[in-house]
Design goal:
Largest sheet: 2 strands, antiparallel
Protein name: Type II secretion system F family protein
Number of helices: 9
Strand order of the largest sheet: 1-2
Subcellular location: Cell membrane
Pfam family, one: T2SSF
Number of strands: 2
Distance between the termini: 36 Å
InterPro entries: T2SS_GspF_dom
Order of helices and strands: EEHHHHHHHHH
Structural class: mainly alpha
Organism: Candidatus Scybalocola faecigallinarum
């Protein structure tokens, strides 16, 4: 189901069209054409470099296609995770806006509808939170309850903060709780969590830069030896034992890089 909602721009004569979000599963990510091309070029460059430095042969490029599928899987997971992180930050800004409307006497349903236009002052039309709020507004116009709308959004987002807010809203609607105070508490909880995550990322920023530099050092050393002392490594490329040794080195290097990034990936 798609519903096109038109909004006249305050500046200019154009008309802005926003499509309400479909049933988007945030646990998955679909690469577009440009992202596919970028991934193929980036992975191909890595394989060419590995073939030149570790095997003195570009035939290793033949392994590019099967390994690309594995790399694509991890790339999709990474992009989906990043998208969910951005969604939570956008959601925090959105419920602050909700709170401002509810605090002035609007019902939660009215607050969602009025927030759609205001969100466009802070976000782009194709941002996920904007599409989700327009989707909720469309459902409300079809007499779907706000509890069902939030439950659907929370389920698809897979984020604890959004799920908690959905549950609190459902309980408050049934019991007639103080909605402004409930939303305010949710804003503070999500805000504190995001601030903690940002502090940790700031602390890890320097370490991440150091780690990336350390990752490049072995490659730089091998490249230096290949260019300025080609005979020194020639023996490793011309016999089976040397190829096995270089394969083991490549495997250990790849495992160390993967392990390092996992250590730096701290969840709050």
């Amino acid at each position: 189901m798609r519903r096109i909602i038109k909004r006249k721009k305050k500046r200019g004569k154009g008309v802005c069209r926003i499509r309400a979000s479909r049933d988007l599963d945030y646990s998955r990510y679909r690469l577009n054409f440009r992202e596919w091309i970028a991934l193929i070029l980036k992975t191909g460059a890595v394989f060419l470099a590995a073939g030149y430095l570790f095997y003195d042969s570009l035939l290793v490029f033949a392994a590019f296609i099967p390994v690309l599928l594995l790399i694509c899987y991890f790339e999709k997971r990474h992009r989906a995770k990043k998208r969910r992180q951005i969604l939570v930050q956008q959601f925090k800004e959105a419920i602050i806006l909700l709170y401002s409307f509810v605090a002035t006497g609007s019902t939660l349903e009215q607050a969602f509808c009025r927030s759609c236009t205001e969100l466009l002052r802070s976000f782009k039309e194709d941002d996920d939170i904007v599409r989700e709020f327009y989707r909720i507004r469309t459902k409300l116009e079809m007499n779907v309850t706000i509890e069902e709308c939030m439950e659907d959004f929370a389920r698809r987002s897979g984020q604890e903060d959004i799920e908690s807010f959905s549950q609190v809203v459902a309980i408050a609607k049934r019991s007639g709780g103080n909605m402004p105070q409930i939303i305010k508490n949710s804003v503070e909880t999500i805000k504190n969590k995001i601030e903690s995550e940002n502090e940790i990322r700031t602390m890890l920023g320097a370490k991440t830069g150091e780690f990336k530099l350390m990752v490049m050092i072995p490659v730089a050393v091998m490249l230096y030896m290949r260019v300025f002392s080609p005979g020194f490594m020639e023996v490793l490329y011309k016999n089976p034992a040397g190829l096995v040794f270089m394969t083991c080195c490549l495997g250990v290097y790849g495992a160390a890089v993967s392990w390092g990034f996992k250590i730096l990936d701290i969840h709050v």
